[in-house]
Description:
This protein is α/β, with parallel strands linked by helices. It has helices at 34-47, 61-68, 75-80, 92-98, 107-120, 132-137, 141-154, 173-177; strands at 2-3, 18-19, 23-28, 51-56, 84-88, 123-129, 158-164, 180-189, 192-202, 212-217, 220-226. The protein has one domain (2-226): P-loop containing nucleotide triphosphate hydrolases (Rossmann fold, 3-Layer(aba) Sandwich).
Amino acid sequence: MRVSSGVSGLDELVGGGLPAGRLYVLSGPPGSGKTTLSTQFLVEGVREGENGLFVSMHESRADIVEDMSGYGFGFERAVETDRMTFVDVFSSEGKRLFRPPGKHRDASSLVNRLTGFIDSNGVERVVVDSTMLLEHFLSDTDHNTIQFLTSLKRTDATVVLISEMTDPSAYTDEHYLAHGVVFMHNFLEDGGMQRGIQVLKMRGTQIDTDIHDLSFGGGGLSVGSSRGP
Ligand SMILES: Nc1ncnc2c1ncn2[C@@H]1O[C@H](COP(=O)(O)OP(=O)(O)O)[C@@H](O)[C@H]1O
Ligand SMILES: [Mg+2]
C-alpha cells in the first residue's frame, strides 16, 4: 500500500506514493521546506481520514499555525481536529508525553512513550522535527539513535524524520537506516536562490533521482520538472 505525500508532483517521483508503514528521512538546509512538506504530509492524512502526530522541538503550535497560515492546504483546520496531535516537546504536555523523567537519558523510555502513543492512538502518519531532538534528549547518541529509529520502523505508522543537514555529503546513521531518503536543496543560480527536491533512495521502488524544481505556492510546496543531469 502507498500513501500520498500531499505534495503535488512528489508521488510521481516514487512510483505513485510512499510505501506505507515505513521510515523516511527528509534532509536539507534551513529554509529548504522540510517543515512545510511535513505538515502537508500530515494534512493529507487527515483529509484521508488517518490520524497524525507531529512532534516538534523547533516550533510551538502557535508558531507553526501562523507560519502555515499563508498557504491554503489547511494546516490550522487539520490540527484542530482530533485526528492530528501536535506536540511541542518543550511544552508541559510534551514533557509529560515524551520526556523521560530523571537524568537517565536512554532511548528506551523516550521510544516507549512515542511508540506507545502511536499504537494506542492508531496513529498512521508521524513527523519528528527533528533529529536534534535525539541529540538533545539522549546521551550516547549513536547507540540510542539506532534504537530510536529501529523502534519507529517497527510501528505501523508511516514516519517522516527531519534531519537538519548543511553538508550534502555528511550522511549519518538515519540515512542508512531509513527506507527512504529525500533531500531538499537550496542553491544559488543565476544570481537567485533556487529550490529543489531529490529522492535519493526508496527501497523496493523505482525512483526518479533527478533534482526537481520545487516551488512554494498558495497550496504549499509543489514539485516541478527535472533540472536535468
Ligand atoms: N507563502 C509562504 N509562506 C511561508 N513561508 C514561505 C512562503 N513562501 C516561501 N516561504 C519560505 O519557506 C521557508 C520555510 O520553509 P520551512 O519548511 O520552514 O523550511 P525548513 O523546515 O527546511 O527550515 C521560509 O524560509 C520562507 O521564506
Ligand atoms: Mg523546519
